Amino acid sequence: MKYIDEFQDPGLARRLLDDIHSTVTRPWALMEVCGGQTHTIIRHGIDQLLPDQVELIHGPGCPVCVTPLEVIDKALEIASRPGVIFCSFGDMLRVPGTGRDLFQVRSEGGDVRVVYSPLDALRVAQQNPEREVVFFGIGFETTAPPNAMTVYQARKLGIPNFSLLVSHVRVPPAIEAIMQSPNCRVQAFLAAGHVCSVMGIGEYPELAERFRVPIVVTGFEPLDILEGVRRTVLQLERGEHTVDNAYPRAVRPEGNRAAQAMLEDVFEVTDRAWRGIGVIPASGWRLSSRYRDYDAEHRFSVTGIDTREPAECRSGEVLQGLLKPHECEAFGTTCTPRNPLGATMVSSEGACAAYYLYRRLDITTASLEASPVV
Amino acid sequence: MSETTELRAPDLTAWTCPAPLRDQPRVVMGHGGGGAMSAELVQHVFAPAFGGEVLSQLGDSAAVSLGGVRLAFSTDSFVVRPLFFPGGSIGDLAVNGTVNDLAMSGARAAYLSCGFILEEGVEIAVVARVAELMGAAARAAGVEVATGDTKVVEAGHGDGIFVNTAGIGLIPAGVDMRPQRVVPGDVVIVSGAIGVHGVAIMSVREGLEFGVEIESDCAALGGLVEAMLAVTPDLHVLRDPTRGGLAAALNEIAAASGTGVVIQERSVPVPPPVANACAILGLDPMYVANEGKLVAFVPREHAEAVLGAMRAHPLGADATVIGEAVEAHPGMVVARTGLGGTRVVDLPIGEQLPRIC
């Protein structure tokens, strides 16, 4: 954290931008995979500063956005049951299921709590032995290891009243699915640095080779993003397609072995539905048979859930990079962060919400030049 | 007698949704977050029920005339948990919050009322401690607690102690501060570092450690406002950016004044511990609550002198210019980012929520 200012330095940013501007000779479409990167890009206005030929497509890397409606509805169902304490990270509380969200469940008397770590939820279970405590375990390879560790601890400590509602997803199969889409426009990827800090970069060379796309492991500060873009554009201009690590301060090629071992013990790979995209083979994790007792879906027999997506929501196309948020008819009119139709408008990392919050009007830098700030 | 009624197209310019809050049939925490949901609750439920021209000012305090005297009148309720936190307590907040709301009208608070709602089972020693701290804060702010009330609710129906304070104070002659007075060219000044109170509360409430203890900036701003008014009574508007933070205050002013606001993001003073805590939690400091800060829209010709007066006061030592009011994009707040891009700084919706990763 202490070096954060250095990664937002305007002078260095200018140099990187100049470099990118002087390298680009034709149009390129890059996808930043992670919602955290989308957030940084929009929040700092990076997309406005890049050459017009460099288009950033916002990928499906927001865990809140891609959690299927069906899973949200299961969460709402479980959280509504008497005797349950439902624990979640904060931003999942506002994601609409069919007709309501976890905040509403809470206002109707459900015990829904925001926690900052799954281990906090385990502590709640220890403190409330007479109640069933459920943690909403969603997210990518970044949030999966601590969730796995929590289930491992629950079993080790013999805490019977804890379970996990799991909807974990994996990045590489999503990249594969995007590249195989007939409408795919993506020519290169900024890979999610934090995912790679856990999993390493071993899964990417095969993808880069098979689809002939550069994949550059990228961090989350403004300069990280610019450096990722710079290296990606350089490869594209040279006709190369290799895996490059532009985030070495956090990512080792082999990743975090201990975290990987924990994932292998507690989870097993499964097909997983992505909200707005559909089922992607082998793209998720579920609790392995050894830990089935801790699976909230089994424990609460959540069945018979009728799931309906709003017909006018086109978040699936947004998540696949086929549509820019503001190109959707509902954007900013019938769909706003206040009344979201889909999860991309709910999460602050969702592409639609990021566009709505920071770019609602297309304010050009030029129009502001007329009003210099004191 | 009535004339023949002719059919005309309805005038939708002043139309408000007949089924407001339709998506939230019950109160949720976001309705108290100081953002769009709070505003909608006031706009659709309270304002129509109460009517009244004064209420429509919707400021931190109301400016009223009584017997030829101009008074500022304000009320605020305090439901903070924990009751005692680094840098303050619910008692300090209850006094300073209302004193500051009055100060935003230019008034020096004169009298406060104090209403306690106590939960059965709370220790008398705790109530006494809160009362002592309130007394000390009132003496420090030069205000007298003149009337009060106490109610007790059954165990489980409260949160230990809730406090409501209301206050009145005189508005000096020649002072007329309201968002409608803002004009393009006004300079936006913030009195010091933002986000401190919200992060201090969060760190103790959630048991989060950020490496250094962050103390609330809770303080009474009456003296600082007097120092500013001594330079010129012609300050256009002041806001006390509590719930919803600086972003909410700037948006309220932009919307009510019909001007745009541009801020230079790098000029906004965010202390490193606050920036780090917000980065860890995925929060934006612009939306985090403050309790001892103000934001001022000052006519350009007075900006330098007002800034000097603020910096000469202990509560304004770190005052800084962060932007200006502009003609472009009326009603909107735009930030110029450190890298030279721009982004819209919107009104928060409900509560800010920690992000998942």
Count of β-strands of chain A: 11
Q: Treating each run of at least 4 consecutive H or I residues as one helix, how many helices of chain A?
A: 17
Instruction: Please report the two chains with the greatest interface, counting residues with C-beta closer than 8 angstroms to the partner's C-beta.
Output: A-B, 58 and 53 residues
* Overall mean confidence score, pLDDT of chain A: 89
Beta percentage of chain B is 15-25%
Order of SSEs of chain B, N→C? HEEEEHEHEEEHHEHEHEHEEE
Structural class of chain B: alpha+beta
- Tell me the helix content of chain A: 25-40%
Catalogue the unreliable spans of chain A.
363-374
Rg value of chain B: 21 Å
Spatial sequence of strands, sheet with the most strands of chain B: 9-11-8-12-10-13-14
What is the H-and-E element order of chain A? HEHHEHHEHEHEHEHEHHEHEHEEHHHH
Strand order of the largest sheet of chain A: 4-3-5-6-11-10
Number of strands of chain B: 14
Compute the separation of the termini of chain A in Å.
Answer: 30 Å
User: What helical percentage do the residues of chain B reach?
Assistant: 25-40%
Gap from first CA to last CA of chain B? 68 Å
In the predicted model, the low-confidence regions of chain B spanning at least 5 consecutive residues are 1-22
Quick one: overall form of chain A?
A: globular
Radius of gyration of chain A: 21 Å
Strand content of chain A: 15-25%
